[in-house]
C-alpha cells in the first residue's frame, strides 16, 4: 500500500475515538453559538425586580411577562411595523437578487465588451461613495422617495461586494461550454440566463439572498432618514423608538406625573432583551430555506484536487 493511499484512507476514515472527539467538539461549539440567544430569551422572561436584586442568572428566582406586555402595549403599531419589515425584506431581497445577478452575470462573461469598465465601476464604489448628504438629496429630492416604502428598499438594493462574490461564482461554476451550447440551440441571452445559468447558480444566489435578507431585516438607519409617516416605520426603528421613549421617561422622572413606584416598575433591562427576541426570532426561520446552498455558496472559488 502506497503512502498516498494510506494517507487518503487515514484522512477520510477516522477511528471511533477521534470521531467521538470531533463530534463532541462540534456540539460544544454549536452550543456556545446558540447559548447567548437562549440566555437573552431567559432574561426577557425574568422579573425586573428579581433581575435588579440577583443579577443575570440562568435560572431566575422569578418569571414575568411584563417586558413583553410593555412592548406589545403599542397594539396595532407593532403588528404594522412587522408587516412593513416583512414586506420590505421580501420585496427588497427579490429586487436585490435581480439587480445583482444580472450585473454580476454580465461582467463575468468574457464576451461582454465593457465588462472591465462595469467591473471597475462596481469595485470603485466599494472604496469611495458620495457620502450621506448627496445620498439624502438624491433619495428625497431627485427620486422623491421621502415617506415611501421604496426609500427602505432601493438604497440597499445593489451592493458592490455581493456583485463581486456572485461574479466569482459565475466565473468558476458556469462553464463557457454551457453558454455556447445554448447559443448553438438558438437561445437568446435572457433565455440562456434563465434556463441554463440560474439552475447552476442556486448556491451563490442563496448566499447573496441570505445576506440581503439580513440587511433589510436589520435596517433602521434608512427609516431614521427618510420615514416620518408612522404607518411606514419598520420593526427595528419602532423598537428603537420605544427604547428611546423609555429612557426619556426615566431620565426626566422628576418632571413626570408618574409615581416613583410606577417608574421603578418599568422593565428596563428585560424589555431590551424582549426587543432583541422580537427582532431576531423571525429571521432565524429564514436560515433553513438557505442552509441547503449556503455552505456551497461560501466556498465559491475553492480549489479542489
Automatic annotation (TrEMBL):
GO CC entries: plasma membrane
Keyword Nucleus annotated: no
Location in or out of the cell: Cell membrane
Superkingdom field: Bacteria
Span of domain ABC transmembrane type-1: 82-279
UniProt membrane topology term: Multi-pass membrane protein
Chain segments annotated as transmembrane: 20-45, 82-105, 117-137, 149-171, 192-217, 273-290
Family according to the record: Belongs to the binding-protein-dependent transport system permease family.
Protein's name according to its UniProt entry: Carbohydrate ABC transporter membrane protein 2 (CUT1 family)
Taxonomic source organism: Fontibacillus phaseoli
Lineage of producing organism: Bacteria, Bacillati, Bacillota, Bacilli, Bacillales
